[in-house]
Amino acid sequence: xxxxxxxxxxxxxxxxxxxxxxxxxxxxxxxxxxxxxxxxxxxxxxxxxxxxxxxxxxxxxxxxxxxxxxxxxxxxxxxxxxxxxxxxxxxxxxxxxxxxxxxxxxxxxxxxxxxxxxxxxxxxxxxxxxxxxxxxxxxxxxxxxxxxxxxxxxxxxxxxxxxxxxxxxxxxxxxxxxxxxxxxxxxxxxxxxxxxxxxxxxxxxxxxxxxxxxxxxxxxxxxxxxxxxxxxxxxxxxxxxxxxxxxxxxxxxxxxxxxxxxxxxxxxxxxxxxxxxxxxxxxxxxxxxxxxxxxxxxxxxxxxxxxxxxxxxxxxxxxxxxxxxxxxxxxxxxxxxxxxxxxxxxxxxxxxxxxxxxxxxxxxxxxxxxxxxxxxxxxxxxxxxxxxxxxxxxxxxxxxxxxxxxxxxxxxxxxxxxxxxxxxxxxxxxxxxxxxxxxxxxxxxxxxxxxxxxxxxxxxxxxxxxxxxxxxxxxxxxxxxxxxxx
Length: 486
Hints:
Blueprint lengths: L2 H9 L2 H9 L7 E4 L1 H7 L7 E7 L3 H11 L3 E6 L4 E7 L4 E8 L5 H6 L9 E3 L9 H4 E2 L4 H7 L1 E2 L6 H4 L2 H13 L2 E2 L1 H10 L8 H13 L3 H10 L2 H5 L19 H18 L4 H8 L1 E3 L2 E2 H11 L4 H4 L1 E3 L2 E3 L3 H16 L3 H13 L2 H7 L5 H11 L3 H13 L8 H23 L9 H8 L5 H15 L6 H16 L1
Parallel strand pairs: 2-5, 8-9
Antiparallel strand pairs: 1-2, 1-6, 3-4, 4-5, 6-7, 10-11, 12-13
Helix pairs in contact: 9-11, 9-12, 11-12, 11-16, 12-14, 14-16, 14-22, 16-19, 16-22, 18-19, 19-22, 20-23, 22-23, 25-26
């Protein structure tokens, strides 16, 4: 991109105007650094923005005051290095502003402590509006622009990785997001220090892991990480998956199948790129800046994590009965370690637990309205994620017993369920015919499991079109109550 276009982009940026204006009352130096600058050179458009600022001193105190002025969320990320984040939200603008004290005596020394050369540029925030040429204000002492042209991820210095081992993850997340290649010397350093990564704050590790999952090149990055066994340091639960052979429907062991499913889900995302409702669903945020797309790719990688524990032989055949339940239970420890939100944990749990359900539905010769209702009732908002994972999972099995016709039918059922999900979302919900209090009063029953069971049956019968009035609902309730008493 021409430098004048980049300069104009900086001058016209409303986010930067907020910080420039707020900083007028402070004497400290402030520089825009890192990814925002890099992305301007790459003409990279993002749905969500992050801005990093290097401040000569007092970053925590100043950014906290600015957060109060902007009426925004504020968190201290690293007290030792004076690192903070302002979470800014309003109707039209939404982003994160990160502030960090200089790591060194001046900005050039600070840039030496940055992770990779592509992130080692800086611009004096106070001089942007007056500048006539980008080169007047751009600092690039370590070859950022050169490595951007070469599409290369390279350490700024030999201290980059040992100084902060999370940069191991960041190397792969940048590679995945930008389509860049990690330089050979950087790759050697990553291999040398990989065991240090588990000592870092898992919130930061998880942030980079989700960036990998959210990219179009997630599988490639995971495969490169796997070649160094980096994933084992983060997710030790995957170790037992290696070498676990499966039945005749599979051609890969459990671990390789999980990696292949991750590739297949990426391919499926591309295949469905013209499906606006599905793309909108995948791009929706499930927690903070994390999308369903990233979460689903994580689920694809972890969907069979329970298989090693569930594996057993029955009449000489390998079986994994209940592995979806084991996997869901194992996810509790993984979610705790990765510090993911409750919403993310619940969504992952539901996807993993129900990932076999669409396959069972595809085996039914004539799919009933009740069966479809039950699926949506159990899957909730993860219904589309579950059917997409089911397609990817099926495509990852190419053993001697797999049949093309079965696969085609399976995919038709899954895509039909996705279509039905969006139709139901647009449709006005059916009014509730009766509630629990009314049932207890009319049937003279106390609160308990039976009331819940009756309400579920009424809801299901209503969805199937079998009952339409309150009187019919009460009749069904009385019949059920009578049967329970016998």
